[in-house]
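**User:** I keep going back and forth on a fold encoding question. It is easy to fool oneself when nobody else works the same problem. Could you pick a protein and write out its sequence and tokenised fold? Could you put it straight underneath, so I can go through it closely?

**Assistant:**
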Amino acid sequence: MNTTSEIPLADQRTAEILASARLAFAEKGFDGASMQDLARKAGMSVGNFYRYFPSKAAIVDALIALDLAEIEQDFAHILCDPDPIKALRATIAQRISNSDCQEDGRIWAEISAAALRKQEIGEAAFRMEAEIARHLVTIFARASGLAFDKAAALWTAHAQLVVMLVKSCAMRPPEPASSNDLTQLVMRMINGLLDDITTFDAAKG
């Protein structure tokens, strides 16, 4: 992993701006946070801010690219594991119970709401979910020994539902009394979906 000193200054500044944009969206909402608010949160003039990101859609594209890069690292580790489904279960369980996931969920709830109103945001969010589902199918293919196309025909809907469940769990409002029960129920549902892959009989399928 690169240390901060090894990352080009321009990339460091972009990462800092995106981190501040996450905070602004979480505090004021996607529509409530103006470009002026985003620039102020980043400690920049509006004119300078526009040099990095000319629109909120551009910010969302960058946030998606950043999150996908992190997710792809997780998938790469899972694919290298001797038992990729077991590794996937552990990764999902850790993610949906992580407080950082809840923080990200607030932002993605805002972006998901904006996606219903703004086509470019909706297309970007759809591309992200489709890419994650494709990675999941790759894991399913690896675990079952099937070719990707065969695994996709069998389990694309499984992958899409896993994405929906993880996303919904992350975006749920905080309910301390019941959140743990809900997390466990979501994980049980996901494990049931993954059991379809682990119990698949290639000779019969």
